[in-house]
Amino acid sequence: MLDLKQFELWFVTGSQHLYGEETLRLVDEHSQTISNHFDLAPEIPVRVIFKPVVKTPEEIYQIIQEANSTKNCIGIVAWMHTFSPAKMWIRGLQILQKPLLHLHTQYNRDIPWAGIDMDFMNLNQSAHGDREFGFMMTRMRLNRKVIVGHWQQKEVLESLGQWSRVAAARHDLQGAKFVRFGDNMRQVAVTDGDKVAAEMVFGFSVNTYAVGDLVAVINQVSDADVAQLVEEYAETYSLAEVLGKGQERHAALLDAARIELGLKYFLQDGNFKGYTNTFEDLHGMKQLPGIGSQRMMAAGYGYAGEGDWKTSAMVRALKVMGSGLQGGNSFMEDYTYHFDPDNSLVLGSHMLEICPSIATGKPSCEIHPLGIGGKEDPVRLVFNAPAGPALNVSLIDLGNRFRILVNEVEAVEVTEQLPRLPVARALWKPAPDMQTACAAWIYAGGAHHTVFSQNLTTEHIESFAEMFGVELVVIDKNTSLRHLKNELRWSEAAFK
Fold this sequence. Notes:
38% of the residues lie in helices and 23% in strands. The chain is an alpha/beta fold and 496 residues long. The strands form 4 sheets. A 6-stranded antiparallel β-barrel has the order 11-12-17-16-15-18. Helix 8 packs across helix 10 and helix 10 (250-269) packs across helix 11. The longest helix is centred in the first third of the chain and has 20 residues, at 21-40. It is elongated and about 85 Å long.
């Protein structure tokens, strides 16, 4: 789990010298009180650091320049306590490289009806000071998040906490490295894409390494390390009898553990944050990584199958966003449908690689044949995902731009035993209904691979798309195909 407390949001308040030293002293005190409240709020997982009130173009430029160069600063929260003439902000906003949240609040919650006077009015001018600031950001076409409400309201704290998680994920992607072992699955379109464009837009790089490079690391793993990991398997999961020590398939469990450790050491040594592989390129490996990829995801790494580097990066991003929250995020694929008119469902799964962070109960560690890949039977974790609200998120490359798709779904309990389907799986109802959701996904060009999340909301993904200036398409309870097709047409024109 990533410790989000290593990251900082800077709380920056705008004012001007017009109001005199006493007013500016109060502005500074109020700003520090609000910032400290945010820093201690359990709803906000990162540090919130107070910065002295800025009153001139030079001070604004300097604080933004410092934010840009401070490693652990992941964004700025800006608030205009008084009226801060927005032309002062132009130079600073022009160089801003971190996400920006505009907090539209005021220090006092209520109007002091009996005591309000012009001194109070001069001090508490957020109602129009923030509008001046908002105009300038709109005039400059800046993407930002706007939160409205009193700073002590739970809704404000929760919204700021959600945004801070996304800012941390964005920060994590800057300079992140992802490994592509081999190429993508042959002849597949949606898992491919423009890696140069992705690095320009999102900040992460994807580079190919030969499977042989990984195999060399796997072959160097010590027997002692393998034995220790196998003990961990036995303690953590319900181990199939045939995989136990002295049993007929125990050697396969040792091989799986050696592959996992090879993956782990390769990623650690190269400071990588995720990877992708394909069953078509396994030269030198005894089995397709199953439990290894599952556990790498559970440890926070991005992963997707079949060379799908975009989904691998999204898995990592959502892992960071969801760090510390109950529930999990996993690589997923819409595998097959249940078209019962009274209970339409999607069965989500993959050959092997679903993250146990979304497991309900204790996963079972099993071994079964796999009809593709041409290797020995792979070890995998088998489990069901729990019921509850969830998202399916997909990043696709449309050639002239990237698009992020979200489908809000409701996961349901898997009540059938599925004795002949020994893989991890999730079952869900897509919003607004099966026919509309599936058609909308296809119209929008959504991939067959997604990130399945049970601890994040559409608001997280909306903020993520806005931070990168990327198109977002949401399929939810309000979606109609007529409106969605118009939205796609408008987006095509807007992004040209």
